[in-house]
Design a protein that fits this description.
Elements (H helix, E strand, L loop, with lengths): L2 E4 L4 H13 L4 E3 L6 E5 L3 H11 L8 E3 L3 H5 L6 H10 L4 E6 L8 H4 L4 E5 L4 H9 L3 E2 L14 H8 L5 E4 L10 E6 L2 E6 L5 H8 L3 E2 L23 E3 L10 E4 L14 E3 L6 H17 L4 E4 L8 H12 L4
Helix pairs in contact: 1-6
EC number: 2.7.7.87
Function: Required for the formation of a threonylcarbamoyl group on adenosine at position 37 (t(6)A37) in tRNAs that read codons beginning with adenine.
GO molecular function, one term: tRNA binding
């Protein structure tokens, strides 16, 4: 079973243990502002393979490579002027940019799924400090079994992967609660490959280019989170409900009234006051609570499709998609 270290009370020991573990090619579960990540040396084939094996993740699904700062990022990727402007405005933070990989980058092709582009993010807080101390980028998808609900607290990681990991760093609940926004600047526009913790309207405001969405869910996999079925709990998921059946779990937003709510196995409200930021922070933790209630299905009321609501709805649509 994994050793768990609290980074608030034992920050230096956490850094030392994490650097030692990463240097041996082992993955480390660590908190970021978005979700908990399963981090390993992005320049090592063995380390990246351990990520895929631990998660049961398809190797055609590329990994985001996390950097300590913009300077480290520029050593591995080519920045156009708009991408650099976005990085300067929103890093560290919940934005991943898809960029051309430099020919001399040490990032291993396993991390990019063989693509000539790389997804790069600079995380805030402890994760960024760890990368700076380690001195190399970390590939870090969410610290959960592939396709399942992302973890936003350390105990979520323990329950899912605790017997497969050597070290889990506990940083409390993630403040953003959904994965990063993924964007790619090309052809005079900003392509939104995955809505996430940064409002797409902010990209448009700073980049001064239109933001366009993928035409269909069948798009080529250029970045994490683009699989049609993803973020799925054990129970089936229904969305935009106004009525539920006995034995279902109910997750509502803004105190929505739902017929049959009194017969739900559990009733949770992502944000009673209708705050999308609060709803995003609670999303994955509430899905896990609902799933643990033994519900036959998890029913969600409608979420406004604006601001962070776009990211929430993206996750719910993928969770509700038919599963293989």
């Amino acid at each position: 079973m994994a050793e768990i270290i609290d980074i608030e009370t034992e920050r230096e020991r956490a850094l030392d243990r994490a650097v030692d573990t990463l240097s041996r090619g082992e993955p480390v579960a660590l908190p970021t502002e978005t979700v908990y990540g399963l981090a390993a040396d992005a320049t090592s084939a063995d380390a990246i393979n351990r990520i895929y094996e631990t998660k049961g993740r398809p190797r055609f699904n590329p990994l985001i490579c996390h950097m300590a700062d913009l300077e480290m990022a520029e050593a591995h990727a080519v920045f156009d002027p708009v991408s650099r402007k976005l990085a300067q405005a929103f890093w560290p933070g919940p934005l991943t940019l898809i960029l051309p990989l430099r020919p001399d980058s040490a990032i291993h092709p396993l991390a990019t799924a063989g693509l000539d582009t790389v997804g790069i993010r600079v995380p805030a807080g402890f994760a960024g400090d760890l990368i700076g101390t380690f001195g190399r980028p970390l590939a870090a998808p969410s610290a959960n079994t592939s396709g399942k609900v992302s973890p936003t607290e350390a105990h979520h990681v323990v329950a899912d992967l605790g017997d497969k990991l050597e070290l889990i760093l506990n940083g409390g609940a993630c403040t953003v609660g959904v994965e990063s926004t993924i964007a790619k600047v090309e052809d005079g526009a900003i392509r939104l490959l995955r809505p996430g913790g940064l409002d797409a309207a902010e990209l448009e405001r700073v980049g001064r280019l239109p933001v366009i969405r993928p035409a269909s869910s069948g798009a080529i996999i250029e970045a994490p989170g683009m699989l049609a079925s993803h973020y799925a709990p054990g129970a089936a998921v229904r969305i935009n409900v106004t009525e539920i059946s006995p034995g279902e779990a109910l997750i509502r937003f803004g105190g929505s009234e739902v017929k049959g709510a009194s017969e739900a196995t559990i009733v949770l409200d992502l944000s009673p006051r209708g705050d999308l930021r609060e709803a995003a922070a609670n999303l994955f933790a509430y899905i896990k609570k609902a799933d643990a209630s033994g519900a036959t299905a998890i029913a969600f009321t409608a979420i406004p499709d604006e601001g962070l609501g776009e990211a929430i709805n993206d996750r719910l649509q993928r969770a509700a998609a038919p599963r293989d």
